Amino acid sequence: MTRPTSSTAIANLALRHLKNAPITSISPPDSDSKAAASCAAWYDQSRRHCLEDHPWNFATKRVEIAAENDEPVFEYLKKYQVPSDFIRVGRLGESWYDPERDYEIEGDYIITDVTTPLKLVYVYDFENVSKFSSKFISCLAYKLAANMAYELTGNASLKDGMEQLYRSELTSAASVDGQNRPTRRIQKSKLADARQNLGRYRNWQSWET
């Protein structure tokens, strides 16, 4: 099978999972085609969902962000607006070995005590199908199929089945994607461990997913 190079090609993979006939376009969607309309409605939502579920190597950026002039009302000292294409945090701070874990995301802002500028590694709203990894394409096709299944077939069990296949494919994809990052041996002092275990809620997620 030829590698998909367009959103329509990925949509047709999803429709194939649902045993639906292929379509010619989702942008704009084929006229008088319920399948094409469903694909067009669910494609971007499904893509963003897949991006949010794993810190994909192909969809990461590194940026420095200046603090906002106004500070949080209480608890934290600084507020930073996330980039417009932000999907999820990968890491805060310059050091992989000692990332910043004390922060919260509120709306479009990261609030923390980190002094400006904030160094952020993040997953962004990646849209270039030709640069998707093969595993990501498989995940996206299953997620799209799951989101469209009941609408197109009325079969709730099929929706659940597609979701299970998505989760299974995501596990495999995360393992392969992780192999493209070198394993890092982290040595922590007792003092560092104690410091990291104190403080407020920590919602940081490791890249070693």
For the largest beta sheet, what order do the strands appear in spatially? 1-6-3
Mean pLDDT, to the nearest integer, reads: 88
**Considering DSSP H and I runs of 4 or more, what fraction of the residues is helical?**
25-40%
- Taking all Cα atoms into account, the compactness measure Rg is 20 Å
Summing up helix and strand content along with how strands pair, one would put the structural category as alpha+beta
Order of helices and strands: HHEEEEEEHHH
Biggest sheet features: 3 strands, antiparallel
Please tell me what the overall shape is: elongated
**Beta fraction of the residues?**
15-25%
The low-confidence parts are 185-209
How many strand units?
6
> Number of helical runs?
5
Q: What is the terminal-to-terminal distance?
A: 29 Å
